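Appendix B. Raw example, untouched.
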Amino acid sequence: ARVLAPVAVTAALIMGVAVVAPPAATAATKTYTKAQVSKHNKSTDCWTAANSIVYSLTAWVRQQPIGSVKTAQICGKNSTSALKAKFGSLAKIDISLGAYKIGKLK
């Protein structure tokens, strides 16, 4: 189900379309500590923090060409510098990895 913007929600309800509320704890509200992120330090279980945002990159790492992602540089740690070098800017990190965002770093 898709969550609609408030203006679209009103129109959707008038038209009889069911709207599903977002989960109580969204990626924007969950917070993680550095210690929690550090436990996910393998390519088969890879979390990283970049610009105070936590991403679960296990699926993303699997999709990358072999050798293009050095998991030791990103998994289980703050990888702002490494990802900025890969994507070119902080904004491009979030654009490219936004689907993998799971929360914020405490």
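End of appendix B.
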